[in-house]
């Protein structure tokens, strides 16, 4: 059945007094015909403008001193009839005075009308000449009545009649707004009367608001008020909404207000959509009504009656049948039924007075069967209509509780309860959720014998969920026994069980063991077999572990790790293991793990951890490079070491015949290493079982080929056993990675210049030698180098050199040069040794040592904090940039940039209290360092500790033959132009072999050619405009190798004449010697004075100035 919501008419009642039966005698029909108001605007007490439409007037007779038919009228009307003044004075006026007297007693006063009816048929011609008009007389006598009108029985035209009635209609419409406000003023303080006025005006929302306020003003009704009432009165109150002499009975009054709200909301004239919406509102009102009654059997029966009566609504049944719209009833039936969970009723007998309910409660079985059947039907109906899961969960809860407590159907109850408690806990109904969860746990205990491991894990999960919501409910012993029954590992997400408050920095309190503290809250108190904290990054995964922990609600756990990696890690999770139960707690945090070289334990004793590092050695051979691995044994002896390298294996120059050794830096300990090389790994182990002594330093040098790149990344592991003084040895693993800087900080350039010397004796032979020149520069502009010493050595050769001062600074654009005289060629190679230090290494050494002294003098720092600060400062010094060039020149240390950001990145590795004072200490230290003066003793110590050495193998040039060329002439201060000068050209030829006999024999063999002759061409060039050469201009020399043997060689002399052609300083004629014959030998030529210049003048002893 469809309902269209159309606006109902508003019935406005007008009270009338008709002593002469004028209105009843015929005027009523005219009033009903002509007095019609379609709409009127009305401003309420809140100054809100409203419109009232479709108004219909209802006329109610009100005789003075008689009982009123209606208490709510909006105006008072009086009808009188009079044809002469005498009747007016004797009859009409007294009646009006009496009527007004009674109306004056009302407060506030309603608008009043007086209507004078004129019977035109009884009026004669003489009446026209009356001096006094009765209508005017009425207006004069009763000035307080502003609405006095005359109504004629006959009008000349219909137009006149319509205008007359329109005037009356407009007057009545004009008084309506005030009349309505007067009604509200009369009902002020009485919400029920106010609601009645609103309802008559079709203002349903306002009427409902008044009823609701009165309804809510009675929040709670004790059972004594309604439990003893007769059933007839209760039914009458619920069905008819009558007060039934119960103005002082809150139950009857609230029942009356419930009925009034029902009448307002469930109006059959409403459309289906509005009616359904109002059903939901009324459902919530029913719920409030039921919840306001104190819990007892009578209250439940009343609830049953109200809900049954509501569901019997014909319009509701029609809507459900046509639309299956279940959302109308979920708000009140379900919540109302669940509001009685865990409430204890009185034990006295109770007699049900409702017949349908009596039939359901004949026996326990009939009642149980009916409840289960009804609940299942409703669940099926909800499911078929795709209702919300929350609605289904509430209904299934009812069914599960019945099945568990009454029907002993534990399996079905278990399936429903697990959904129910989860729903209530999730939606914040903690009390109900915990109660259901406890019931579910009891239910699982009933099933554990028959279902085994599956139910055990469900039971454990339920106990944990219960502990999260109520920490005092977990039975430690029972829970542990359940955990022992789990057959396979069972993972459980425990984010709500645990809470991590703080995580400490990684520290040490035992040699080679790293620790971390976690402050943890727990909702369970239980003994845990193992706690594992997992840390991960892109390269590795490590675990901190502690065993046999007794968890309390507040805990501080210390977890340890001996398989460590020094890097930044993200926390992957925290796992608590109890038997096969694994409680996984995931949380986000970051941990930076740094190498701890030393730490302080009790009695302020310092212990050291085993550590390793990898880099290029201090002594580097340019032609034979090594990677040096340094092993620093800690305070415990170690054994069974194994080093595994995982990358850049092809760069290591190791084959099956290679041998590597582990050598002690101090002492004579040398241990051979076993090498296992695969495609992707290189493993080094000791060939014999040995124990490496505590606090010793060992080195391994691995031949390596450095690439053109300045950096070489090496990833490697170090495994060893740390030998304790007491207890079992500790297996340790360090997963390490290093970026090795293979850059040489200096660049060396070399050059050889061959020279000879000839004694003044005429018969002496030239002495051949060469000068070896080396120029050393820094390769980085911001990091100069200090050249401490340069030595060229090789076998028994004697090398003469100019010895410069030590500690020469070499910059990138200002290098330093060294010369060495090599007089004999007895060695194939010589070695150039350069001892140097970089400014960055010197500054790092200085600030590190000075900082150690600085913190040692701070009395407020204990030894543990001093060591922590020294380790943090080491990281800081490597990141800070200093003024290296300024230091190289002055030995003064100054910063090149601000260090605030760098300092912040370092302090995050410290504890909170340490991080607060460390920056101030660093700033104070750096200020003091700027004033520090370095004495000679400190300089010597500094250079010894930062010294590096570079060895370069220099090949001696492979020379087969050396030739000297020299002009001999009479040397004068001036030579005259065009005057010949006698010159003797001397050429000495000497074959030269190497000290290596095999190599020398090969060279001599190479010198042998056809006829044992070497063809040399001597030629002058670039001299046509300066000199005329008399004699020869081109010479061909044939050197007989048999005659030109050492030590004498072969000597040639040529007499020439040079004639100068230009004035001024001119160079002697240039000369060039070429090998025109056998090419497979090398020859060096020493031009002694062929580039000399002489002064040529036009006249001798004449002064010449050159410009």
What does this structure look like?
The chain has 1107 residues and is an alpha+beta fold. The chain has 7 domains: 10-187, Rossmann fold; 191-319, no CATH class; 355-488, no CATH class; 495-600, Sandwich (Immunoglobulin-like), CATH 2.60.40; 610-741, Sandwich (Immunoglobulin-like); 744-957; 961-993 and 1010-1097, Immunoglobulin-like. Helices cover 34% and strands 30% of the residues. The strands form 10 sheets. Strands 14, 20, 22, 23, 24, 25, 26, 27, 28, 29 and 30 form an 11-stranded mixed beta sheet that branches. A 6-stranded mixed beta sheet has the order 2-3-1-4-5-6, sandwiched between helices. Helix 9 packs antiparallel against helix 10, helix 15 (364-384) runs antiparallel to helix 16 (389-407) and helix 16 packs across helix 17. It is elongated, with a radius of gyration of 60 Å. It starts with 9 loop residues before the first strand and ends in a 10-residue tail after the last strand. Mean pLDDT is 79; it is low at 1-5, 324-345 and 994-1010. Residues 339-453 form the Trs130 NTS domain. Residues 35-187 form the TRAPPC10/Trs130 N-terminal domain. It holds the Pfam family TRAPPC10.
């Amino acid at each position: 059945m469809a309902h269209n919501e159309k606006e109902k008419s508003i019935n406005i009642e007008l009270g009338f007094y008709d002593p002469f039966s004028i209105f009843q005698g015929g005027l009523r029909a005219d009033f009903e015909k002509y007095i019609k108001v379609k709409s009127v605007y009305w401003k309420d007490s809140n100054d809100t403008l409203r419109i009232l439409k479709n108004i219909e007037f209802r006329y109610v007779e009100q005789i003075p001193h008689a009982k009123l038919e209606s208490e709510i009228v909006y105006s008072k009307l009086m009808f009188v009839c009079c044809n002469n003044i005498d009747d007016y004075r004797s009859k009409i006026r007294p009646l009006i005075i009496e009527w007004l007297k009674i109306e004056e007693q009302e407060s506030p006063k309603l608008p009043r009308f007086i209507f004078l009816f004129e019977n035109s048929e009884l009026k004669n011609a003489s009446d026209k000449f009356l001096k006094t008009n009765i209508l005017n007389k009425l207006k004069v006598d009763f000035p307080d009545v502003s609405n006095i009108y005359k109504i004629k029985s006959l009008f000349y035209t219909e137009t006149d009649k319509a205008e007359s009635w329109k005037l009356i209609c407009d007057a009545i419409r004009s008084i309506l707004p005030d009349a309505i406000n007067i009604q509200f003023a009369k009902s002020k303080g009485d919400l029920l009367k106010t609601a009645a006025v609103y309802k008559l005006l079709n203002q349903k929302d306002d009427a409902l608001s008044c009823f609701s306020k009165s309804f809510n003003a009675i929040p709670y009704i004790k059972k004594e008020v309604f439990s003893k009432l007769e059933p007839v009165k209760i039914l009458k109150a619920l069905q008819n909404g009558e007060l039934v002499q119960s103005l002082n009975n809150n139950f009857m009054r609230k029942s009356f207000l419930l009925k009034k709200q029902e009448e307002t909301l469930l109006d059959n004239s409403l459309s289906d959509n509005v009616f359904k919406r109002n059903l939901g509102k009324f459902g919530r009102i029913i719920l409030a009504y039921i919840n306001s009654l104190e819990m007892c059997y009578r209250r439940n029966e009343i609830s049953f009656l109200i809900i049954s009566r509501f569901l019997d609504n014909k319009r509701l049944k029609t809507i459900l049948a046509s639309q299956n719209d279940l959302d109308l009833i979920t708000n009140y039936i379900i919540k109302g039924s669940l509001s009685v969970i865990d409430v204890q009723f009185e034990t006295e007998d109770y007699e049900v007075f409702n017949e349908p309910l009596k039939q359901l409660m004949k026996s326990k079985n009939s009642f149980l069967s009916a409840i289960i059947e009804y609940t299942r039907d409703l669940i099926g109906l909800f499911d078929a209509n795709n209702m919300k899961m929350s609605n289904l969960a509430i209904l299934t809860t009812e069914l599960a509780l019945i099945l568990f407590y009454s029907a002993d159907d534990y399996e079905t109850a278990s399936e429903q309860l697990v959904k129910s408690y989860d729903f209530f806990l999730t939606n914040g109904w903690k009390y109900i959720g915990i109660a259901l969860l406890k019931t579910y746990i009891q239910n699982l205990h009933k099933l554990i014998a028959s279902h085994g491991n599956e139910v055990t894990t469900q039971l454990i999960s339920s106990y944990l969920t219960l502990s999260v919501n109520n920490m005092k409910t977990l039975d430690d012993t029972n829970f542990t026994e359940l955990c022992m029954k789990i057959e396979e590992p069972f993972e459980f997400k425990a984010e709500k069980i645990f809470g991590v408050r703080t995580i400490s920095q990684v520290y040490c309190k035992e040699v080679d063991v790293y620790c971390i503290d976690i402050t943890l809250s727990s909702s369970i108190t239980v003994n845990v077999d193992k706690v594992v904290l997992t840390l991960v990054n892109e390269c590795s995964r490590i675990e901190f572990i502690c065993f046999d922990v007794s968890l309390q609600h507040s805990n501080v756990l210390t977890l340890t790790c001996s398989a460590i990696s020094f890097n930044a890690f993200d926390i992957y999770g925290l796992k608590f293991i109890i038997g096969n139960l694994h409680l996984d707690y995931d949380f986000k945090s970051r941990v930076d793990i740094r190498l701890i070289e030393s730490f302080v334990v009790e009695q302020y004793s310092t212990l050291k951890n085993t550590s390793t590092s990898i880099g290029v050695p201090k002594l580097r051979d340019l032609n034979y490079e090594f990677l040096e691995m340094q092993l620093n044994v800690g305070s415990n002896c170690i054994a069974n070491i194994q080093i595994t390298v995982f990358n850049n294996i092809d760069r290591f120059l190791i084959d099956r015949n290679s041998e590597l050794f582990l050598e002690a830096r101090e002492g004579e300990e040398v241990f051979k290493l076993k090498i296992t090389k695969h495609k992707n790994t290189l493993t080094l182990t000791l060939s014999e079982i040995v124990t490496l002594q505590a606090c010793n330093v060992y080195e391994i040098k691995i031949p390596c080929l450095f690439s053109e790149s300045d950096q070489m990344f090496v990833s490697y592991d170090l495994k060893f056993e740390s030998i304790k003084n007491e207890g079992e040895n500790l297996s340790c693993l360090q997963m390490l990675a290093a970026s090795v800087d293979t850059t040489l900080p200096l660049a060396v350039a070399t050059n050889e210049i061959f020279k000879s010397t000839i004694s003044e004796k005429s018969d002496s032979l030239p002495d051949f030698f060469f000068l070896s020149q080396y120029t050393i520069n820094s390769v980085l502009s911001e990091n100069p180098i200090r050249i401490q010493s340069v030595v060229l050595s090789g076998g028994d050769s004697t090398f003469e050199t100019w010895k410069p001062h030590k500690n020469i600074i070499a910059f990138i654009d200002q290098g330093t040069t060294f010369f060495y005289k090599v007089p004999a060629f007895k060695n194939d190679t010589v070695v150039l040794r350069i001892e140097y230090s970089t400014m960055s290494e010197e500054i790092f050494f200085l600030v590190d040592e000075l900082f150690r002294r600085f913190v040692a003098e701070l009395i407020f720092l204990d030894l543990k904090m001093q060591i922590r600060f020294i380790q943090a400062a080491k990281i800081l010094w490597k990141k800070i940039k200093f003024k290296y060039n300024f230091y190289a020149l002055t030995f003064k240390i100054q910063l090149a940039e601000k260090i605030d950001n760098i300092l912040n990145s370092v302090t995050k590795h410290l504890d909170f209290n340490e991080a607060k004072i460390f920056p101030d200490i660093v700033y104070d230290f750096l200020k003091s360092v700027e004033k520090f003066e370095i004495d000679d003793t400190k300089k010597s110590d500094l250079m010894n500790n930062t010294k590096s050495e570079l060895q370069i193998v220099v090949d001696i040039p492979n020379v087969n033959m050396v030739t000297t060329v020299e002009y001999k002439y009479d040397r004068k201060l001036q030579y005259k132009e065009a005057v010949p000068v006698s010159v003797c050209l001397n050429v000495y030829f000497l074959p030269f072999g190497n000290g290596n006999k095999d190599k020398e024999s090969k060279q001599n063999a190479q010198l042998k050619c056809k006829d044992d002759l070497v063809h040399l061409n001597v030629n002058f060039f670039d001299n046509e405009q300066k000199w005329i050469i008399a004699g020869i201009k081109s010479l061909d020399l044939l050197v007989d190798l048999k005659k030109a043997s050492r030590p004498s060689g072969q000597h040639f002399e040529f007499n020439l004449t040079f004639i100068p052609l230009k004035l001024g300083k001119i160079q002697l004629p240039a000369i060039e010697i070429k090998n025109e014959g056998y090419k497979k030998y090398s020859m060096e030529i020493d031009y002694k004075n062929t580039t000399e210049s002489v002064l040529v003048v036009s006249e001798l002893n004449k002064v010449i100035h050159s410009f």
